[in-house]
Write a structure and sequence with these properties.
single chain, alpha+beta, Immunoglobulin-like
Length: 176
């Protein structure tokens, strides 16, 4: 696993942890459900946190579904895509970079399609869009934003058990 991906995965994990801490502080964690959130403990081992507390298992944190199956020693149940971290609205100046990302968990791994204003985003050579999906992190990037990049973006993750989507508004303002 490359250092760049480890850094990105760590940052995303920290964002999820921060969000959960904020929800606990605001009294809105889980809204009464007992959903558990996997995180990385300070020593780099797996940790689980839910509305009733947290625990660590001393095992290295894993970011891939296939590795999770091996780590458990038994087959994990198949599951429809679940949105762990939604897209966020983005406000940028003309010429700035745009990055949209969300975190999806599923087994088998979901197929991801991006839309801008209800049209499929093309990442072919010459396209301003760069799409990447690895280990549940779904990412859309634009190196340099122009007015025509503004709009409503949607990420749809699908496997044979179901689909999940997240939307974000991108606003591009004036001159840089």
């Amino acid at each position: 696993m490359s250092q760049t991906f480890r850094g990105q995965a760590q940052r995303l994990s920290e964002e999820v942890q921060s969000d959960m801490r904020q929800r606990h502080a605001n009294g809105t964690a889980g809204h009464g459900n007992t959903a558990a959130y996997g995180t990385r403990a300070e020593n780099g081992t797996s940790a689980v946190e839910n509305g009733t507390g947290s625990a660590t298992n001393g095992q290295p944190m894993s970011y891939r579904n296939e590795e999770r199956i091996r780590d458990c020693g038994e087959a994990a149940p198949l599951r429809a895509p679940v949105l762990l971290k939604p897209l966020s609205d983005v406000y940028v100046q003309r010429g700035d970079a745009i990055e949209l990302k969300c975190l999806v968990d599923s087994l088998p791994e979901a197929q991801v399609v991006w839309y801008k204003d209800s049209r499929v985003v093309n990442s072919a050579p010459g396209s301003p869009y760069r799409l990447d999906t690895a280990n549940g992190i779904c990412r859309l990037a634009v190196r340099e934003a122009y007015a025509e990049d503004a709009g409503l973006y949607r990420c749809v993750a699908t496997n044979h058990l179901g689909a999940v989507s997240s939307e974000a508004l991108v606003c591009v303002a004036g001159e840089k």
